[in-house]
Write a structure and sequence with these properties.
The structure holds 2 protein chains of 2 kinds. By secondary structure, chain A is α/β, with parallel strands linked by helices. In chain A, 49% of the residues lie in helices and 9% in strands. Chain A contains 24 helices and 13 strands. Chain A has helices at residues 4-12, 25-30, 37-48, 58-63, 70-74, 81-96, 100-109, 112-127, 131-136, 138-143, 145-153, 225-230, 232-244, 259-264, 267-283, 294-301, 312-318, 322-329, 348-354, 358-366, 388-391, 393-410, 420-433, 442-454; strands at residues 169-170, 188-189, 202-204, 210-212, 218-222, 248-250, 288-291, 319-321, 331-332, 341-344, 371-372, 414-417, 438-441. In chain A, the strands form 4 sheets. In chain A, strands 1-6-5-7-8 form a 5-stranded mixed sheet, with helices on both faces. A 4-stranded parallel sheet of chain A has the order 11-10-12-13, sandwiched between helices. A two-stranded antiparallel sheet of chain A has the order 2-9. The longest helix of chain A has 18 residues, at 393-410. Chain A starts with a helix and ends in a 15-residue tail after the last helix. Chain B is of the alpha+beta class. Chain B folds into 4 domains: 2-87, 2-Layer Sandwich (Uridine Diphospho-n-acetylenolpyruvylglucosamine Reductase, domain 2), CATH 3.30.43.10; 94-212, Uridine Diphospho-n-acetylenolpyruvylglucosamine Reductase, domain 3 (2-Layer Sandwich); 216-327, Alpha-Beta Plaits; 336-417, Alpha-Beta Plaits, CATH 3.30.70.2740. In chain B, 35% of the residues lie in helices and 20% in strands. In chain B, strands 15-12-14-13-17-18-16 form a 7-stranded antiparallel sheet, sandwiched between helices. Chain B has a 5-stranded antiparallel sheet with strand order 5-6-10-8-9. Chain B starts with a helix and ends in a 25-residue tail after the last helix. Classes of the chains: A alpha/beta, B alpha+beta. The A-B interface holds A 12, 15-22, 31-34, 36, 38-39, 42-43, 46, 52, 56-58, 61, 76-77 and B 18, 20-23, 25-31, 35, 43, 69-71, 87, 89-90, 92, 109, 111, 113, 132, 134-136, 324-325, 328, 335, 337, 469-471.
């Protein structure tokens, strides 16, 4: 649990050497010292010592942080500047309340009843082509810039969240249960034992079919707001891939992971959300808690930093990023071809917060015919940072442009990533630059390969997903 | 102040003038421990703006402190007496790049590593490589005359500065030096401003000399069970006709610290290791590497590793790169690191190391010694606790002796960090009252009102400022 003592320690470990200057995406665009990690630590100290209060510019300066942890990763002392930023935002929010924009976003994410109509309204708005109005009348942009930015940012909406498209429990793909050994398609890789051939431990399924023992794991799917509301296609791919590998997928009732609240300084709300997720997922009795969102994944794994609950260790011990889960617990090698040139962007919250870097590349590398091309600065923040991209549009766009140029140089047709937040930002940046490159989650490409091998070419409809139980 | 702000707004765009406390606070520090919040921060983008700001400041008698990446380790960028911090990070253009003349013209805010990548992409080389090169700026490098590991073969920043554009304290803009390697017209003001620590004017443009990028390089690691043998290797190599492009030394304490931090496979019973690099044309690199390998063995190296490729070469450097973070983790009760950069003639390196260890023993302080042994440059680092007065007193006494020793061996107080405020009280020990007086005369001639970076180089009588900079 992050307490005053921990913050004090982080603050004291900064030697102001300036290494963070080379790594902070915000500093590298603004070249203004006040936004870099060591400055934030210095200002934090001033606040701590009572030399500053929260009435002035402090809030704005601390608002300009992507929580990407680039500084922490480069820092010789590993100072967790993000914790200090969250603490200042928390103090700021306690004193001054949340900004209207943040209140709206958090209000929506925290409340199922209000986000559904919003999503439908957004879908309707897009289908009617009303976006054009905003573009045609620049004065609207001037009067409501945040709204205008949000409109530019939001992708095509489906009008129905992912969780409405599936039942709570989804059994494994019957195709993944095989009567003969080895498995019909694709050899099994990863996990602690090889599950093919005669040594395969087998078990009878209710239908009398034989299926590999290992993939019977019961996987709790943490959907995450980004996937649920903005990129349900990622969620469908996650479910498809898990089922194809014989995992049972459970989508229990769940709350937002809490990161947007935490990032906005509403620690209490984040704690409530974390507590709710703890309750729901422990009650669902799952072996793993899997997510396809890097930001959610890192937040869930770090619930120990915001919760004092004795059960928190059990919960966090089960959390896996989908890439990590497939590689570590095992999956079938895809045999379908995806003939595309693909590059990969490392989400900050996957590489730096969770140390996951090789797994998504391995999954991509296993797809037949896929040509992988590493981009320069693949692990450099895309500039998304949750609501940062909307509230600090100009800086986020500048940071995004650099990502676009690195993508352009690879001549890839697809940029894969593992976080819906990055996907949104990169899509917006690509649109802004007029570069036609598709943004896909690694599981979407894997799902495509699996589909290809089964001879199902088009993606399943939005209503896809069959309840087997 | 309000009148001044109004005047400044006529010179720079309003957003380039920072007046809020929270913004100004971020310009109160560098990599050392003393801080002071400036009264104003100006972020100019042109030489004319710099000139305008200086003219105003000179009129008001307000201190001006030029600042780049502020990674300085002697206090160069700290506005000790308040006033205006001139943040030059946005003057960051590479203005021209002339292949035929091996010249590049830059603004002061260009980040050192950025220049490296640019010129190396074209097969050219700007060798100065201070440790902080990913964050430091060329203006700061020039003002502090920064060095780095490559100094042994390629020299330091001053060896690559052909000409400068400088704004004097009264706002006059002058050109010193030029664009030619040979240039003996008048006083060599280029060398004067290089290393002037921001006390004479503001560098707004620089003509840098480039050299062809060496085609190949090769790294070696030599392990010794006797410190003297390592020292002997250093002097023999220098005598052998091969000039390595890097010659780094780590003593036994450093090795143990680094090994417990990162497990690099260094033998913890070793007394010293040397990390060497040779570069040049591929054919000569092989020969140089084998000469050096033989020398290391004959001088008593107990283990020798020669990197076979770039990747292995990088691995050899990992242990060296881990020194700084590792040193901070030696003892949780001793979070303060005092890093010195006393430098002696190359031949005195073995004696220097032995006597540094004596000093550490005598004053009962934790000291690690590492550095660019090849050019006589050592980093004796004392690990202490700034909140423990008794420990600090011992550390301070040890440092007094380190300086005394360096000067006694014919060396200098500072090899590459600069004097700043940290070593100002000791300057007189190196040059005597008359030497310091001559320097002061230059300062007074160029900056009669004393507005440029006051409190640096020359002792202000504040007393010795040893200590905390946990960097």
């Amino acid at each position: 649990m992050v307490n005053e003592e921990r913050l004090y320690e982080e603050m004291n470990h900064c030697s102001r050497c300036g290494t963070c200057l080379a790594h902070c995406p915000v500093y590298r665009e603004t070249l203004e010292e006040q936004y870099v990690g060591r400055s934030k630590v210095f200002l934090f100290r001033a606040l701590w010592e009572g030399k500053l209060d929260t009435t002035g510019r402090l809030g704005q300066i601390f608002d300009l942080c992507l929580l990407c942890r680039s500084c922490t990763a480069a820092c010789p002392n590993g100072v967790r500047v993000d914790l200090l930023v969250e603490a200042v935002r928390q103090r700021y929010t306690t004193r001054h309340g949340l900004s209207v924009a943040k209140r709206t976003v958090l209000g929506l994410l925290g409340n199922e009843r209000s986000i559904r109509p919003a999503l439908q309204a957004g879908h309707l708005y897009q289908s009617l082509g009303l976006e054009g109005i905003l573009r045609r009348f620049p004065f609207l942009r001037e009067t409501a810039p945040a709204l205008a930015n949000a409109v530019d940012y939001v992708p095509k909406l489906e009008g129905r969240p992912l969780t409405d498209q599936y039942p709570e429990v989804i059994g494994p793909d019957p195709e993944s249960w095989t009567e003969t050994r080895p498995a019909k398609r694709g050899s099994w890789v990863g996990g602690e034992e090889t599950l093919i051939g005669d040594a395969t431990p087998v078990k009878k399924s209710p239908e009398g079919k034989v299926r590999p023992d290992r993939p019977q794991a019961r996987v709790g799917y943490f959907v995450g707001c980004g996937t649920n509301y903005f990129r349900p296609q990622t969620g469908r791919a996650t479910i498809e891939v898990l089922r194809h590998n014989g995992y049972e997928v459970v989508i229990p009732e769940q709350s937002c992971c809490g990161l947007p609240a935490l990032a906005a300084g509403d620690r209490k709300k984040a704690q409530e959300m974390a507590q709710a997720n703890l309750k729901y997922f422990l009650a669902a009795d799952v072996d793993f808690i899997v997510t396809d969102c890097a930001s959610c994944g890192s937040t869930l794994k770090e619930y120990g930093e915001i919760l004092d609950d004795p059960a928190v260790g059990v919960f966090t011990g089960r959390v896996r990023d989908i890439n990590e889960f497939l590689v570590r617990e095992g999956h079938r090698l895809p045999e379908g071809r995806v003939k595309k040139k693909v590059t990969y962007h490392d989400p900050c919250h996957l590489k730096r917060a969770q140390g996951i870097q090789q797994e998504p590349r391995q999954l991509l590398g296993e797809i037949p015919a896929l040509q992988f091309q590493e981009m320069a600065e693949a692990d450099r923040c895309c500039g998304g940072g949750g609501t940062f991209a909307v509230s600090h549009w100009d800086i986020a766009q500048k940071i995004g442009r650099r990502k676009v140029e690195n993508i352009r140089a690879t001549e890839a047709e697809v940029v894969a990533t593992a976080c819906p937040g990055c996907a949104l930002q990169i899509e917006a940046s690509l649109r802004g630059a007029g570069l036609k490159v598709e943004v896909r989650h690694t599981v979407e490409l894997l799902a495509e390969a699996y589909r290809e091998e089964k001879g199902i070419s088009p993606a399943p409809a939005a209503s896809g997903g069959v309840a087997l139980k | 102040m309000q009148g001044l702000i109004k005047d400044l707004r006529r010179i720079v765009e309003p957003k380039r003038l920072l007046t809020e406390l929270e913004d100004r606070m971020a310009y109160a520090y560098d990599g050392t421990f003393r801080t002071r919040v400036p009264d104003l921060v100006v972020r100019p983008v042109t030489t004319a703006e710099v000139s305008g700001v200086l003219r105003l400041a000179n009129r008001e008698g307000l201190p001006v402190v030029p600042r780049g990446g502020a990674t300085s380790l002697s206090g160069g960028a700290v506005p000790l007496q308040g006033g205006i911090v001139l943040a030059l990070t946005s003057m960051n253009r590479i203005l021209s790049f002339n292949r035929e003349d091996l010249l590049v013209m830059v603004e002061p805010g260009v980040v050192t590593a950025h220049l490296h990548r640019n010129v190396e992409g074209a097969g050219l080389f700007y060798p100065p490589d201070p440790q902080s090169l990913e964050a430091s700026t060329l203006g700061g490098n020039i003002a502090e005359n920064a060095g780095g590991p490559r100094g042994i073969k390629y020299g330091v920043t001053r060896d690559y500065i052909l000409g400068l554009e400088v704004v004097l304290p009264d706002g006059e803009i002058i050109q010193v030096g030029g664009s030619t390697v040979k240039n003996v017209s008048g006083y060599d003001l280029t060398r004067l401003f290089t290393g002037s620590e921001g006390t004479l004017g503001v560098i707004t443009r620089a003509n840098l000399k480039l050299i062809p990028k060496p085609e190949a390089r090769r790294r070696l690691l030599a392990v010794y069970d006797d410190l003297g043998a390592a020292g002997k290797t250093v002097t023999r190599i220098i005598d052998s006709g091969v000039i390595p492009s890097m010659l780094e030394i780590m003593d036994d304490t450093t090795i143990q610290v680094v090994e417990s931090y990162g497990h690099f496979g260094l033998p913890v019973e070793a007394a010293a290791i040397l990390i060497l690099e040779v570069d040049g044309f591929a054919e000569t690199v092989e020969r140089q590497a084998s000469i050096i390998a033989d020398l290391c063995r004959s001088a008593g190296a107990i283990r020798l590793e020669v990197a076979r490729n770039e990747k292995e070469g990088e691995d050899l450097l990992k242990a060296r790169r881990a020194v700084s973070p590792a040193v901070l983790r030696i003892d949780p009760r001793k979070p303060t690191k005092i890093s010195e950069d006393a430098t002696v003639p190359r031949s005195k390196v073995p004696e220097m190391i032995v006597r540094l260890k004596e000093i550490a023993r005598r004053h009962d302080v934790t000291m690690v010694v590492y550095g660019h042994a090849g050019d006589g440059f050592l980093h004796p680092n004392i690990i202490t606790n700034q909140d423990d007065p008794e420990e600090m007193a011992r550390a301070e006494a040890a440092i007094d002796e380190v300086f005394k020793l360096a000067l006694e061996l014919g060396g200098t107080l500072s090899g590459e960090h600069g004097i700043g405020y940290l070593k100002a009280p000791y300057l007189v020990n190196e040059f005597g009252p008359a030497g310091v007086k001559a320097m002061r005369a230059i300062k007074e001639a160029l900056d009669p009102k004393g507005i440029m970076n006051p409190g640096k180089i020359f002792d202000q009588g504040i007393g010795k400022m040893r200590a905390p900079g946990r960097g």
